[in-house]
């Protein structure tokens, strides 16, 4: 946004903020069969042994445990972000949240939204493997399995209190005239069960990078999830003819009614008062990467329906919502992506193929 004049920038800020802001230590069981593979690697090596991402409910109980334990480990490792950049980046987990907060206006509603988030989740997966001895791949959450009927949503295996991420927060009355009021919200308080019930969220709310210790909140909206995460919305997204249309249908617009699958997961879980509904700080809920892995699988599914054309198809604005290119041009394969202290810088090109050499993972199943 550097080249946007400040008036326009604050206009964007107000618009988005008002619409979306509400948006063991390795005590691992010993004999877990390891899934050897490459994941993320130095640039341009051949991807010979991709790790394979699987749907959460298809994992064995010990695999689910291993993943959740690795996240707990990552939450305890000391952060690498310089204190003057983000005083609230206490853990390695927070490092990634801080990176997302700082780039919020540069990585959403832009052409590189999906490439950046592919890079982001692959880096998280890689860190769990290299820093927390996790031996599997990042699991994904196929929400289409949980929203027909939408009343099933809170019973998704992803919200399981032992073999999942825990469930909803208790009902918080709130204010229904709040512009961030998500239709159908049912919670809003601190998550009270599961492995993250005592988790300390440090960063946020919104764009704050100060240390603001508090609980993890969720505010599930089964209605919203049913409306925006069902198979019909998924098919509509997959039927788009080119990347520009595909990513716009997936991203949706900056209002609840205009949500796509991306907003469906964020507001279906985060509602008004949950972590996942905060455009800046949503990676503070570990479910974030389950949702984004599935959005990534969606993109890969779309790419694989016409690999020849779609492995290099990229477009969309450099600047947020600049769909008419009034502030700048469109993103190309050479567009740079950064995750700060979390990874080396790459370009969009390196994210286009999940088995392309830099990335080295696969999915067990495609849409
Ligand atoms: Cu994001």
Automatic annotation (TrEMBL):
Keywords: Copper, Metal-binding, Signal. Coiled coil: none annotated. SUPFAM superfamilies: Di-copper centre-containing domain. InterPro entries: Di-copper_centre_dom_sf, Tyrosinase/Hemocyanin, Tyrosinase_Cu-bd. It comes from Helicocarpus griseus UAMH5409. This is Tyrosinase copper-binding domain-containing protein. GO terms for molecular function: metal ion binding; oxidoreductase activity. Residues 108-125 form the Tyrosinase copper-binding domain. Pfam families: Tyrosinase. Residues 1-31 form the signal peptide.
């Amino acid at each position: 946004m550097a080249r946007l004049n400040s008036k326009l920038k604050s206009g964007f800020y107000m618009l988005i903020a008002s619409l979306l802001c509400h948006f063991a230590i390795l005590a691992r069981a010993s004999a877990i069969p390891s899934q050897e593979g490459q994941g993320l690697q130095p640039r341009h090596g051949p991807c010979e042994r991709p790790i394979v991402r699987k749907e959460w409910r298809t994992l064995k109980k010990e695999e689910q445990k291993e993943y959740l334990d690795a996240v707990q480990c990552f939450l305890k490792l000391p952060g690498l972000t310089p204190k003057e950049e983000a005083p609230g980046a206490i853990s390695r987990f927070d490092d990634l949240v801080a990176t997302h907060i700082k780039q919020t206006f540069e990585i959403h509603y832009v052409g590189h939204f999906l490439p950046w988030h592919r890079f982001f989740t692959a880096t998280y997966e890689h860190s769990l493997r290299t820093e927390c001895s996790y031996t599997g791949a990042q699991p994904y959450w196929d929400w289409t399995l949980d929203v027909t009927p939408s009343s099933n949503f809170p019973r998704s295996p992803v919200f399981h209190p032992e073999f999942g991420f825990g469930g909803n927060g208790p009902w918080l009355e709130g204010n229904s005239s709040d512009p961030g009021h998500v239709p159908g919200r049912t919670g809003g308080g601190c998550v009270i069960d599961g492995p993250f019930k005592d988790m300390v969220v440090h960063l946020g709310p919104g764009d704050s990078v100060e240390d603001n210790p508090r609980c993890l909140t969720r505010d599930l909206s089964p209605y919203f999830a049913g409306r925006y995460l069902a198979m019909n919305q998924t098919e509509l997204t997959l039927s788009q003819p080119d990347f520009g249309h595909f990513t716009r249908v997936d991203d949706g617009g900056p209002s609840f009614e205009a949500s796509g699958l991306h907003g469906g997961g964020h507001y279906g879980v985060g509602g008004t008062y949950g972590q996942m509904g905060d455009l800046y700080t949503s990676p503070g809920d570990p479910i974030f990467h389950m949702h984004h892995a599935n959005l990534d699988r969606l993109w890969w599914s779309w790419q694989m329906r016409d690999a020849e054309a779609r492995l290099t198809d990229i477009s969309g604005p450099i600047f947020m919502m600049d769909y008419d290119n009034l502030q700048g041009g469109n993103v190309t394969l050479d567009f740079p992506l950064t995750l700060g202290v979390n990874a080396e810088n790459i370009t969009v090109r390196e994210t286009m193929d999940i088995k392309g050499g830099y990335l080295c993972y696969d999915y067990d199943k495609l849409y």
